[in-house]
Amino acid sequence: MTDAAAVSWPSVADLAAEEAELQFGSFTNDDAWELGTALAAVARRQGAPVAIDISRNHHRLFHVALPGATPDNAAWIERKAAVVDRFGHSSLYVRQASVEQGTTFEEEYGLDPLRYAAHGGAFPVIVRSVGPVGLVVVSGLPQLEDHRLVVAALRAHLG
Predict the structure, then answer these.
(1) What is the pTM of this model?
(2) Which domain holds residue 141?
(3) Cβ within 8 Å of residue 78, ≥6 positions away
(4) Which phi and psi angles does 113 have, rounded to 5°?
């Protein structure tokens, strides 16, 4: 596991800029399929043992568990998704917002850790002029890598 102190964590400002950049004009079932299959293909090429989940309005549109993913990844997906649903920002944004205030997510909010995990890897599907309508979640890598995998896939899809 990577030493957390050695990792270069993005700032809340950087994460907010990602959310402002990575917005859809609309988000359909076909968008979920195209994004999900592209994300799975990249993860497969990297040999990443991840589970991927994409939903719109709590309706699961895409889910895959690649080789090496475990049932625990499904629980992490649910917990990360709960953070995005509650706060409207990526799970890493919510984590970093607490860190930048000199605390932790757990200390700041006191939410049940069996239901909420402010760990990177869950990103809101944001439709311009509408707001968050869904989620893209990856679980199986260290949290910063989960986040970066999602962001890279969104950039490629929207680019």
Answers:
(1) 0.94
(2) 10-158
(3) none
(4) -65, -15
